[in-house]
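Hey Z.,

So I finally got round to the adenosine-5'-diphosphate thing we talked about over coffee. Here's the setup:
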Amino acid sequence: MKERETKDTKPETPKKKEPKMPLGGTGISWFYALMLIFILMFTIFNPFTDSKEITWLEFERDLLKEQQIEKLVVVNKEVAEIYIKEEILQYPKYEHISPSEFEPHYTMTLGSVESFENKLEKAQQDFLPEEKIDVQYTSRTNFGDIFPWLLPLGLLLLFWIFMVRRMSSGGASNPFSSFGKSTARISEVGRKNPVSFKDVAGLNEAKSEVMEVVDFLKNPLTYTKLGAKIPKGVLLVGPPGTGKTLIAKAMAGEANVPFFSLSGSEFVEMFVGVGASRVRDLFKKAKEKAPSIIFIDEIDAVGRSREKVNAMQTNDERENTLNQLLTELDGFGENTGVIVLAATNRPDILDKALLRPGRFDRHIYLELPNRSDRMEIFWVHMRNLKLGKDIDVEELASLSPGFSGADIANICNEAALTAARKKKEIVEQQDFIDARDRVIGGLERKGNIISPVEKNIVAFHEAGHAVASWYLKNVDPLVKVSIIPRGKSLGSAWYLPEERKIVTRAQFLDQICASLGGRASEDVIFNEISSGALDDLEKVTKQAYTMIAFYGLDQEIGPLSYYDSTGQNERILSKPYSENMAELIDKKVRDLIGTAYERTKQILVDHKAELKVLAQLLLKKEVVDKTDLEKILGERKTEILLDEKD
Ligand code: ADP
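And the result:
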């Protein structure tokens, strides 16, 4: 969801002539020289001599019998080189053979030396009993043998030279020339549509803090003349999609300074040393353009605490990058006019050295928007849409608790797309509601064919959730139940989650019961259970473990928490408690879920008639909303106030 409105423009530093490297500078001439050496070697040691290859029969018939052989040289026990008597070479028959002393006139491949010797011995006895042929044995390293090795080596060498040459000559189109250069996107000052604080809805506290930093950049003198040091690093902390990038861009827009943005993961690449040099390059560029803002997204990719990496998982490259980042942060003075913003949603895992005073010592927390913030965010993103008259932003905001700014931006866009798909001229309220459902649950798959038997099970499963939660006081209000397949699920019960910061034990227990409603309904109605409750069971099990092991909500185990906010335990394989405690936790979780299940079943047994009516209605209508639910189940008695308090 990140809008990258930035351009890929490089700062206009004058093109420097880089000193050429000893090999790189030689350029094409080296290439030719190497080729020449290759060709020369090939011709000098050419394994494929002119000498003609002959067979034993030819050898015996034409040469041996005719007494034309001067000497034989057996090379490497493989080949016999045949030299013909000099005087015989004068015969016209041998005109085609050059009279060289060094090259054999014929060659003959041997099967084995012994059989060759035997055959030769016999032939000599038969044909030239009084003349002995001189046989020499030699071993030679043939260039032909090493050639297959040399070829790839040579090619590698050529490739390397080619690379070095390209790298040293640089050039915009050359990917290798950007090794170690920062890939930061820089947005220009005074662009046509700079992001401003107008585009950031809600987040008032964060905005006022950021304003202060903008003021540092605009009027540094006001602060420095009193001896104050301008902060160098600001850490934006918050869940994904809460507008960290947006607020950083808005800050650059307001201060009207260049904005360099780079993601932490872009520093950590597979090439050793690239990260550190990218950091160096990024800071260099930013200083050249000061006053400016550097924005490092997902800083946890580089800034993960060094202590927490276990022995099996060292990552030197990341550590080097982090060290370079720390050095750069220390290296530039307070008044250089460069402010580094970094974003993360895991400040707890960052290296302490990064958070030290003088580095990222200012923290701005961005939270998920509350209802009035959500309304503002809806307005910001509806600005450019052609809206119908029935738009009720208040309703949309209350229908989207727990949504981030990015989710809301997504809903607005989806709504416009939905309306366009229906060939409408304007975007109406229902489009927004459909878009919201789609964002939460995935696309409806009406075409997904389910057998009537399965549909029946799904209907009772969903009706089970609905009926159970209707009679549980501490469950979020139910909005509708549907058995239209959506995303991966075959049906769903839609609740309107309350925005609460704390959850009580009773609320936890009621939620677990509501989640077990589907499975319990199958059990009560069909006396048979199915695999359809996987998601529910997973959720319930996790919830029960967190209740007991993290929130200290079990009486016997007591107020203990094995939660680790530092993230250190994530990497440790052993658990921070004893075997006995592990067994006790497991038992408590099983008991808790078992009790909740029985309780849910009891509710459904007590209201079996309503359950059946609702399931039938679901099979007929596919979607049952709150009005129909009230008709079947009566008005819901609840302890929680439906109106949220901001
Ligand atoms: P983060 O960096 O925190 O993951 P972003 O800043 O990239 O999130 O947010 C993604 C998008 O969500 C933004 O481009 C914007 O459209 C929208 N958004 C998020 N928060 C807000 C907000 N407070 N006001 C307006 N739009 C927002």
